[in-house]
């Protein structure tokens, strides 16, 4: 029993990464209709950003937690302006392929520079050790990651649901033409939203650096799991993506306990079930509303 | 004018000329390039054409075709290793298994369209990858399946040059099947689904069933290609079911020009030869190159090589004073298909 609770907690922690990545992917998709294949690569860049800042500039992980997402957000905006924007009016598949190519390039460039072995990254001392909550002693860092991801997800949700900016973004997502007709410059919001989504990926990367293997391929397989997560949750649904992220995290962790050989496959089985029973995703709306 | 007619694929004579050129290349290739690379070109060409049935003609981007190529590579290998049957039988067995695997994947995947279809097929391919990784007794896990024999009716096929000629009929038959599918009433429905699924449905065609059928045919042909590849290398590895393989076959289509059949063949040739060149030159940046080709093609060259050439030449034909030529050019593809 206690093992199960431990595993569920571990699941929530890995689910935190899924949730943050799926959130960024969903926000970008909602605004631009673009599925960003390079999302995993930006996550990897986030972790490497933290590594490089610590290794060559001696900047602490806490600073990296701020600097790296901002820097990647800016890079994301440049990326959107230079490349993604050119294809945004065409079939979304073209941007899928474009970002796929970018992901290949980014991963290979990092691999050529740093090799395939993982870079060492020390856990921040402040978050070392354990904290006693309820029945168990939990590793402090993991608790922090989970809490942080929940806070970020709730903040994003609040911004989208309660603020004027969020209202504009939601309106642009649902009915771009109508929103424009109401006198709102939809295009003005596209680039910042894209940058924000990339910043979230970078944030997840920085969070991952102290507890995951930091190497060029760390985002390569992850992005496919994230795709499955957003299909399960309903792409474009912020709530659905985040919930599905934690859900998949826990499912995989419990799978680790009972069927270790197939734990990685479970997410895809769940995706198959969702497609069978609810093709639009658990929290998604039926297709056809937007074409 | 001759060249433009050839590329536009309109006059029967021009198409015959193109076919002859294609066959000459198919049979002459191992004389010009290293025979194992020649067979790689052939196998990837069939793989790319198989994907083109879905991507170019039905408008469905499958980003998980490595699942079928790889499944057949493993299955072909297992059949060849364990039964010692002629490799033709092994390849056929592998392809049938790939097609069988494609049925459930297709049935689930066609429930979504567009970008979702790409993501879902990618995810299912990753499932196949994990299974291949875990099922060590069958696939050899990370070590791969080694020592696949080249066995056929007691022929000595150890020399890749001779094996090429033993295997190329399988590839050519596969390509012919793809051509037949596209130039059939069934193929017309595929194009109709690509152009306007709602209208195709309104005309009474069961769109999803057609999609599943194309998917299964495509998986079968990808399976033939994967099986030949495995026999040729004597080896099937996890690389065969990995998503970079799915991406590679997509880039071949985009680069060559999807929806043209000849384009993916050309794209496969270019990518395989380029990778071979990079490997021999000791340049360890294959993915940077592949990625750059992806980005550039998608940004500035969306019709691909074949598609661009055909488009440019058709424009020239259209500019010509002959009004019938212009008229024919307008609907060249459909005309070719109807004929």
Characterise the protein shown here.
The complex is a heterodimer of chains A (291) and B (339). Chain A is an all-alpha fold. Chain A has helices at 2-32, 39-56, 61-87, 92-114, 140-162, 164-174, 176-181, 187-208, 222-233, 238-258, 266-277; strands spanning 130-133, 136-139. In chain A, strands 1-2 form a two-stranded antiparallel ribbon. In chain A, helix 9 runs parallel beside helix 11 (266-277). In chain A, 51% of the residues are buried. The model of chain A is unreliable at 287-291 (pLDDT under 50). Chain B has a domain at 35-243. Helix content of chain B is 78%, strand content 1%. Chain B is built from 17 helices and two strands. The longest helix of chain B is centred in the middle third of the chain and has 27 residues, at 207-233. The two termini of chain B are 21 Å apart. The A-B interface holds A 35, 83, 86-87, 90-94, 96-98, 100-105, 107-109, 112, 221, 224-225, 227-228, 230-231, 235, 261-262, 264-265, 268-269, 271-272, 275-276, 279, 287 and B 61, 108-109, 111-116, 118-120, 122-124, 126-127, 130-131, 134, 243-244, 247, 250-251, 254, 284-288, 290-295, 298-299, 302.
Short description:
The complex is a heterodimer of chains A (291) and B (339). Chain A is mainly α.
- As a percent range, the share of strand residues of chain A is under 5%
Biggest sheet: strand arrangement of chain B: 1-2
Seen as an oligomer or otherwise, the chain set is heterodimer
Mean pLDDT of chain B: 81
**Distance linking N and C termini of chain B:** 21 Å
- State the major sheet of chain A: 2 strands, antiparallel
Helix content of chain B: over 70%
Q: Low-confidence stretches of chain B at least 5 residues in length (pLDDT < 50)?
A: 321-339
Encode the helix/strand succession of chain B as letters.
HHHHHHHEHHHHEHHHHHH
Query: Into which percentage range does the β-strand content of chain B fall?
Result: under 5%
SSE order of chain A, one letter for each helix or strand: HHHHEEHHHHHHH
Q: How many structural domains in the coordinates of chain A? A: 1
Spatial sequence of strands, sheet with the most strands of chain A: 1-2
Give the integer mean of the pLDDT values of chain A: 83
Biggest interchain interface, per-side counts: A-B, 42 and 40 residues
Q: Tell me the overall shape of chain A.
A: globular
Give the CA-based shape of chain B.
globular
Helix/sheet category of chain A: mainly alpha
Poorly predicted parts of chain A: 287-291
What structural class results from the helix and strand content of chain B?
A: mainly alpha
Helix percentage range of chain A: over 70%
């Amino acid at each position: 029993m206690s093992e199960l609770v431990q595993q569920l907690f571990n699941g929530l922690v890995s689910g935190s990464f899924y949730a943050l990545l799926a959130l960024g992917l969903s926000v970008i998709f909602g605004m631009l209709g673009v599925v960003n294949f390079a999302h995993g690569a930006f996550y990897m860049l986030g972790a490497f950003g933290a590594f490089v800042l610590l290794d060559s500039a001696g900047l602490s992980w806490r600073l990296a937690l701020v600097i790296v997402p901002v820097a990647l957000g800016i890079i994301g905006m440049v990326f959107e302006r230079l490349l993604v924007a050119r294809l945004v009016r065409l079939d979304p598949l073209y941007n899928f392929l474009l970002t796929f190519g970018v992901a290949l390039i980014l991963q290979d460039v990092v691999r050529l520079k740093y090799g395939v072995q993982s870079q060492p990254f020390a856990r921040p001392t402040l978050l070392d050790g354990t904290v006693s909550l309820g029945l168990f002693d939990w590793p402090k860092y993991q608790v922090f990651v989970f809490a942080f991801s929940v806070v970020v997800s709730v903040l994003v949700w609040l911004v989208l649901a309660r603020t004027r900016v969020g209202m504009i973004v939601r309106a642009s997502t649902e009915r771009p033409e109508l929103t424009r007709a109401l006198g709102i410059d939809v295009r003005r919001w596209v680039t910042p939203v894209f940058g924000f989504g990339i910043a979230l990926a970078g944030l997840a990367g920085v969070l991952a650096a102290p507890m995951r293997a930091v190497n060029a391929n760390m985002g390569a397989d992850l992005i496919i799991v994230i795709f499955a997560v957003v299909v399960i949750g309903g792409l474009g649904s912020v709530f659905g993506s985040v919930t599905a992220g934690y859900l998949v995290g826990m499912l995989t962790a419990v799978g680790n306990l009972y069927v270790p050989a197939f734990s990685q496959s479970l997410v895809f089985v769940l995706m198959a079930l969702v497609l069978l029973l609810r093709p639009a995703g658990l929290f998604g709306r039926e297709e056809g509303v937007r074409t | 004018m001759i060249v433009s007619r050839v590329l536009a694929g309109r006059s029967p004579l021009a198409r015959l000329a193109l076919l002859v050129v294609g066959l000459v290349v198919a049979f002459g290739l191992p004389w010009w390039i290293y025979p194992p690379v020649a067979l790689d070109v052939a196998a990837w060409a069939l793989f790319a054409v198989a994907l083109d049935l879905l991507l170019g003609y039905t408008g469905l981007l499958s980003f998980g075709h490595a699942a079928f190529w790889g499944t057949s590579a493993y299955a072909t290998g297992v059949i060849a290793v364990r039964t010692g049957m002629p490799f033709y039988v092994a390849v056929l067995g592998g392809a049938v298994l790939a097609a069988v695997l494609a049925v459930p994947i297709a049935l689930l995947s066609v429930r979504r369209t567009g970008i979702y279809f790409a993501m879902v097929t990618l995810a299912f391919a990753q499932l196949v990858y994990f299974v291949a990784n875990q099922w060590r007794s069958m696939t050899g896990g990370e070590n791969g399946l080694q020592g696949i024999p080249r066995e056929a009716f007691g022929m000595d096929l150890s020399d890749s040059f001779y094996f090429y000629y033993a295997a190329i009929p399988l590839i050519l038959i596969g390509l012919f099947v793809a051509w037949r599918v596209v130039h059939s009433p069934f193929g017309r429905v595929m194009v109709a689904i690509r152009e306007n699924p709602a209208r195709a449905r309104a005309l009474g065609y069961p769109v999803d069933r057609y999609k599943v059928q194309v998917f299964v045919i495509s998986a079968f042909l990808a399976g033939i290609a994967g099986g030949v590849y495995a026999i040729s290398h004597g080896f099937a590895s996890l690389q065969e079911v990995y998503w970079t393989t799915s991406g590679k076959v997509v880039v071949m289509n985009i680069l060559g020009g999807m929806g043209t059949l000849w384009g993916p063949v050309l794209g496969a040739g270019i990518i395989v030869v380029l990778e071979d060149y990079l490997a021999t030159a000791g340049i360890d940046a294959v993915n940077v190159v592949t990625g750059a080709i992806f980005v550039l093609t998608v940004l500035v060259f969306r019709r691909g090589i074949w598609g661009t050439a055909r488009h440019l030449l058709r424009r020239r034909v259209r500019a010509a004073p002959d009004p019938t030529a212009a008229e024919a050019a307008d609907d060249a593809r459909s005309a070719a298909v109807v004929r």
